[in-house]
Structure formats: structure tokens, C-alpha cells
Amino acid sequence: MTILGGGIAGTVLAGGLARAGYPAVGYERRPNVRGGAFLFLDAHTHRTLVDLGVPGDQLDAASYRVDGIRVGAPASEVRESATAGHRLYHRTDLMRVLTEFAWAAGADIRYGTAISDLDPDSGVLYPGGTATDLLIAADGIDSIARTRLEPERVAEYAGQVVLYATAAPGTRPNTTPSVLHFHRHGSDTPATFGHFWNESVAVWFVRLTRAPIEVGYTGFHPLARWIEPIRTALPEIPYLLDTLLDHTAMVHVSNARSVPLAKARPPRLPVILCGDADHALSPASGVGARNAIDDAAALCHALLDGTDPVDTMARRRAEILAQLG
After folding, report:
1. How much of the chain exceeds pLDDT 70, in percent?
2. Engineered SS bond to 171: which of 60, 63, 125, 247, CB 3.0-4.6 Å?
3. Distances, alpha carbon 305 to alpha carbons 22, 266, 275, 302, in Å
């Protein structure tokens, strides 16, 4: 069996299979997998990872406990709630733990190996013409496998540009620590601002409703060119923006995109899509990583139990569509 992609889903699947002695080879085009964003995972996702064998103490050490969630605006929506066991991760730290788990389990993930094309009917990968009887394609939102299986199902711009940033050590906003704070500004161009801080870290993000940016402006960039758009979109919280923007140098910028699932073709062998390759959701949903990990866990259990991975992914799709309402 072959796994295409060494991100969150591909690494979790490779490690879970290797731990149980199931042979699989993974291909990842990048020499190592990192990321500029951060993410929040809930208790369900942590249980899933630990059940697959990822050390819970290492997950805890690589993350920060979130004690609550507060929505601060508009006034009609101000509310506070407990979290479902959420923890904050920098994506790079999460990938380090998952990669170390996969390596310790003996997973064969071949980094720096690009697969540029494949035959969805035979499972032949190119370059090299390597055949595989089952290919789990966890190769992300710009999936080569999905392009070959369903060329009409392309990633769509979700209407917002997303900025993620980590402020300088010691940054202390005048808000409650260890709580994930949201501020929403409603207008013709809605925006959402969120931040989290404790004694060790301060992070923030902004979702700006606007036209997509050119690909050359995605990734890490100096914050300077984004200060005015952020302040214009969020005029109610200058005191908070002052603190965080003044202590931030770089920001990770991306176009929020999604992959429509409702009209997807039924899964079929030999190529099964997994994670963002099949059903990437806008960051506003906040469950992309959870869904990818659930996919990987479901496929891992199916392969180890000898059940049909096609039926497994059909059920996963139904669960996600129900979640989306």
C-alpha cells in the first residue's frame, strides 16, 4: 500500500499502520513538513491520536492548554464557554511530534520524493511507473490524485484571506490569559480577529473578507503591508490591535479555500482520497485538522481489521456532510 503526502493525515496513517506491522510506503515531495500556521485540537482529536499510539505526554509538551472561549463582539453575541479539551499547537510542533511517532514506529516515509502524476485506474505513480494496489491520497488541497479522479472538483476560494502570527515573547494583551478570544466585525466586508496568550506564547489571526491575493504574496511576509487593512476592517479594538501588531514582525498569509464534497464521486479503488485532498474546509470551520486525523484513524482501523476502505471513506464523507448541515 502507498500513502501520498506526509502532512498531518499521511503521517498519522503511516505511523498507525507501521506500529501494527502493516507495510506501507509514503511519499512526500518536501524534504521535511512544516507549517506557518497554528491550530486548535479538541479532546476527541487527542484521544484519537493517543489511541493510534502517539505519545500523549509529547502532545501535551508541544501544546498549550486552552481554558475557555470568549466571543467579544458584536454585543449581541458576547458569550463565554468552556472548551472541549482544546489545546493550541504551532503546526510545526505538531508535525514534529507526529513525525517522531511515525519514525519510531518504523514508518517508511520518503521525504523529498515528488509524485507528479498517477493513473487513477491502475494505481501507477509517476515518475518511475511504480504500481500500487491501494493508494491513500493525503496530498492536500491541491491534490494530484483528486485532479485525476475528479477534475471538475477543484479547490474554491472561500472569500477570505487568513493571516496567522506569533507575537514576540512577553507580549501581554489586556485580556484574560489562556482563553481563545474572538472578535467579529459585521459590515459589507466582515472580518474576524482571534487571539490567545499565556505566559509562554501569544498568537493571533485575522480573517479578512476580500478578493484573493496573488500566490506570490502567500506564505510568510512582513506584517507592515497588512497593518492598514487589519485596522480598517476592525475599528472597534484599536487597544488590542496596538499591543499585538506592535509586537509582531512577520505574518503567514493564505487564501482560505475549500473543496466541495456534496457532489463528489463515490470513493473507489485503487485510489482513496483522505483529509484535505477530499474535503478541505475553510479555516472558519475550525475542524480541518480534526477531520484529517479522523480520516487517517478510520482508514488505519479499516486496513488493520480487513474491512473495506471504500466503505470507510463513504461513511466518513457522510459524517462530514452531516456535520456541515
Report:
1. 96
2. 247
3. 11, 22, 21, 5
